[in-house]
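Example 5.3 — Protein CBG21822
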Amino acid sequence: MCIDLWFGGLATTTNTTTWAISFVLQNLEVQDKIHQELDRIIGSDRLITTADKNDLPYLNAYINESQRFTNLVPLNVPHATTRDTPERFLDENGKLKKVEELIPFSIGKRQCLGEGLARMELFLFISNFFNRYQISPSKNGLPSMDKSSISRIETRLFSAVLKRRR
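Solution (predicted structure tokens):
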């Protein structure tokens, strides 16, 4: 059981993080907004902790959008948006808002037991990654966004260029 929990959490968190980075490569202006928020709130290359989470609404909205778009286990009811809504997780004041329809960890008896841990890991890794690095596409081009799979959505291998910030 412990091995199942370990590998279940490891694969999904890694996969979500990889998709999140792929999305930024497709939308570099999102990275600019993340960097602006990090520079304004954190202002250094210190380690970001969970205590910083509530002060970074744009970054949290980006993580939510990454989870929404990734849809790691595509066996649920098919769904789509009817219009472009890139900042759907922010209210008119730029504050993070709860969107009840976002349930990347499922609900009820089948809800992910590691939801709290996964949310913490995603926040800490992604926030510290973008606080320390600027990422850009490599000469090989943008990562594929193809999600054609029957049971699990995994990113295709891609390369990128990392540049240390500060």
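Remark. The two ends are 43 Å apart (CA to CA).
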